[in-house]
Amino acid sequence: MGPASNDSPHKRFSGVAPPAALVFFVLVFVGGAIVTLDHKELQPKEVVVTEETRPPTSEVPAVEPAEEPSNICEFQNQCRPPGSEALPRGIVQDMSNFEMESLGGHPERRVAGRPAKSLLAIPVGIKQKAVVDKLVSKFPGDKFTVMLFHYDGVVDMWRDLRWADRAIHVSAIDQTKWWFGKRFLHPDLVAEYDYIFLWDEDIEVDGFDPIRYLKIVRREGLQISQPALDRRSQIHHRLTVRARKGEVHRRFYKTTGQGNRCYGNSTGPPCTGWVEMMVPVFSRAAWRCSWHMIQNDLIYAWGLDFKLGYCAQGDRRLNVGIVDGEYVLHRGIPSLGDGGKAPATSSTDRLAVRQRSYTELKIFNKRWEAAVTDDACWTDPYP
Predict the structure, then answer these.
(1) Residue 303, burial from CB neighbour count under 10 angstroms (0-12, 13-18, 19+)
(2) Are 323 and 248 in contact (CB under 8 A)?
(3) CA separation for the pair 218, 20 (Å, rounded)
(4) Residue 82 — very low, low, confident or very high, per pLDDT cuts 50/70/90?
(5) How far is the C-alpha of 154 from the C-alpha of 147, rounded, in Å?
(6) Which domain holds residue 237?
(7) Which chain regions cross the lipid bilayer (predicted)?
(8) What is the pTM of this model?
(9) CATH code of residue 142
(10) Cβ neighbours of 81 (radius 10 Å)
(11) Which class for 63: exposed (0-12), middle (13-18), buried (19 or more C-beta within 10 A)?
């Protein structure tokens, strides 16, 4: 019975099992401790990383829905006309015109019914009253607004003409049309007019119809143009002489004579892309560009004619031309001098005018060259 009692299950369990159980529990304890220790070691690292990559909630910049409109407003404010920043955008009217308004009637209906117009602006002296009357009478009042620049200061003596009351009269003694144009034909003031005729006063218009002229200009896509000159006119460049065939020409080829500077492959003014300065006609866009180029102090604008092609809204060889179908006679009467009281017929007056003209030409060309040199972003399309 002794051996049997030694092999009892209780003894087997107490003699062998306790060490195995102890080892098992030790392993479990050690493993758990390792896991706990590892967890405790990793936990602070995770907190540190989290704190580095994501700041506390109180410091996170909120995504404001108003931030985007704010940027849009800043952009729109940059596009505002200077001086209008204190006003709501919709109330700003940054353009005007020379149309006269009735004291009665409904203004909105008046504007809605207004036909498209062009502008005729002429420097005038009372001694050329008859010629100017004939000239302006050719331009129908429902299609053209008339503006007279009185260089002799005489205004009231024009009141008897039938169209005088619908004309805009501006007076300044002994000033040129370019002086007037720079100050009174700002692009925002003439933005509603399709074309701007900036003509001299000594023009005879027996062979000219302005409505037919504009039809040709629109059809040909001319941005800067002039009616051709009758061969009896005072002519400075052969390009402007009326061609015997066709309604428009854009260039002149040398044929005979030594005085002509044009030849078959000439690509620039005064052989092509050029008009003379006594009867130019500008589209709205071309005038906006040309006005910026007119110098405030250079009243004769010599040199400007050779640069007008830059304002042709494209290739000057195509968009600048002479309209032969409608032509005028340029009389070439000297008008400025003696304070506007009389035509400048004396040799002293004419010499002073011509001397200043040549001086202005040199000044303008120097300014152009300096501007080209200084503007690194500008590329000359006609090098």
Answers:
(1) buried
(2) yes
(3) 110
(4) confident
(5) 14
(6) 113-374
(7) 20-37
(8) 0.74
(9) 3.90.550
(10) 13
(11) exposed
